[in-house]
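Wed. Picked up where I left off yesterday with Flp pilus assembly protein TadD. The coffee machine is broken again, so keeping this brief.
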Amino acid sequence: MRKLLMISLTLSGAMVLANCGQSEFGDVKRAKTSVNVIDESNLNDVMLAASDPNESASYFSRALNADPDRIDLQRGLAKSLIRAGNTNAAVIAWKNVVKHKDSTSTDSVDLADALIRSGDWDGAEEQLNQVPPTHETYKRYRLEAMVADSKQNWTKADSFYETAVGLTTKPSSVLNNWGYSKLTRGEYSAAERLFAEAITYDPKLFTAKNNLVLSRGAQGKYELPVVTMTQVERAQLLYTLGLSAVKSGDVTIGKGLIKESIDTHPQHFETAVRSLRALEANVTN
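Structure written out below (C-alpha cells, as returned):
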C-alpha cells in the first residue's frame, strides 16, 4: 500500500511538472510571438523613415511576397514609392490598398494624393468624391483645394484652403499653395499676405520667400521684404526680384537688382551672370 502511494504521488508529481512545463512553454512561445510582432512593427516604422526610400520600397516588396494580404505592408510599399518619387508605381500600390477589405478613407485620400502627383487630376477628383464628407482632415481639404484650383473653381478652392488651414498647426505649405493660387489669378496683394503668413509659421520655407518676392515684384515693389534670410537666399531673392522687374518692363531696375544679387552671393552666381550678360547684350543691340 505504501508502495502504491509512492507510485501515485510520483505519477501525480510528474503530471504536474509536465503540465507546468507545457504551460510555461506555451507562455514562452506566445511571448516570443508577441515580441516578434512588436519587432516587426518597429522595423516597418524604421524602414518607412529610412533615408533611402528605394531600400524601403524593396523591403516592403519582399515582405509582401511572403505575406501579400497584409494591408500594413501594402501601405508601407505605397508610402515608400511616393517618397522615392515613383508615382506611377505608387498609384498602383495605393489602388491595391484601397481594394483591401480593411482599407479606410485615409487610404482613399492617399490614393488621391498619388494621382495628383502623377498628373491625373480627374482621377484624383473622382477618388475624393468617394470619400465620405464626415472624413474631415487637413490632407483631404488641401487636396480638394488643389483639385478645385486645377479647374479654376476659385470660390471652391478658397473655401477648401481656408478649411485646411484651420485643421493643422503647421499651415505653412497650404498657405504657400493658396498664395500661389492667388498669384496665378493676378490677385497679387492677397498672394503677398498669404506668403508672408506662411513664412511666420516656417521661416525656413524658401519657396514661400521666393513667391513673396514674385508677388511684390508684380506690384512694382522692388525692395526685399523684411524676413529672415541667409546671404545665399538674399542673393537668390534679389535675382528673382530683378527678373520680375525686367518682366514688368522695368529693365534698368531689373539689371540693378541682378547686379546686386551677383555682388551679394558668397560664391560665383553663374545663373545671374548669364542673365545680366544677356540683358546687356540686348540693350547694346
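Quick read: Residues 51-114 form a domain with the Serine Threonine Protein Phosphatase 5, Tetratricopeptide repeat fold (CATH 1.25.40.10).
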